[in-house]
Design goal:
Layout: H1 2-23, H2 27-30, E1 34-39, E2 44-45, E3 49-66, E4 69-88, E5 93-94, E6 97-101, E7 107-109, E8 125-126, E9 132-140, E10 149-153, E11 162-167, E12 173-181
Parallel strand pairs: 1-11, 3-12
Antiparallel strand pairs: 2-3, 3-4, 4-9, 5-8, 6-7, 6-10, 10-11
């Protein structure tokens, strides 16, 4: 009788362990970002910072002045320029991780071709109590701009930190052929 009871308890223990292993979330999910989502017109706030997208523009050509010379960047796809306002809650922090999730689900990081444009937010520090305005610039295929989400975080791949997702509305996107970026942004 003892042997039968021991075998039964072993089988039950193995079944419980298998169920626990199958239902435990993976480590990356447990230590992943703390996501907060919202719409383009709203202020999306996490625990570390908040963001509001003021304006979204799709353009073929970007122009800005650098060291007294005009810099012009064209794209075979489209440039997507986000004008945004960021505000830190408790401490000074950078918001370097900016990604757009396109219509197909592909991820697009900020364009390195437009790093020298004035007022780029990823080059700034966000201070508590002081709203910081600027732009994020992405280069992507035109068909990816039908349905987009802007994802902001302190760094790419945050763990146990804020990640803000801002759903962009198609009627809030302005299409232009040329955009001149000034020292104060758009």
């Amino acid at each position: 009788m003892r042997i039968v009871f021991s075998i039964a308890m072993t089988i039950v223990s193995l079944a419980v362990l298998a169920a626990l292993q199958a239902t435990t979330p993976p480590y990356a999910m447990l230590t992943g970002p703390i996501k907060t989502t919202g719409r383009q017109a709203d202020v999306v706030a996490g625990t570390m910072f908040s963001a509001r997208v003021k304006q979204v523009q799709k353009v073929r050509t970007l122009v800005w002045d650098q060291f007294g010379r005009a810099v012009e960047r064209q794209s075979s796809g489209t440039w997507v320029v986000f004008s945004a306002e960021l505000q830190a809650m408790r401490e000074t922090l950078p918001v370097r991780g900016a990604t757009v999730i396109g219509a197909s689900g592909r991820l697009y990081r900020q364009s390195r071709r437009a790093d020298s444009a004035p007022n780029v937010l990823s080059a700034k520090l966000v201070q508590p109590g002081l709203p910081t305005t600027g732009i994020f610039i992405f280069e992507m295929p035109e068909e990816e701009t039908r349905d987009m989400e802007l994802v902001l975080s302190r760094q790419y791949g945050p763990q146990l930190e804020d990640e803000l997702g801002i759903r962009l509305e198609q009627n809030g996107i302005v299409s232009r052929d040329r955009l001149e970026i000034g020292k104060n942004g758009l």
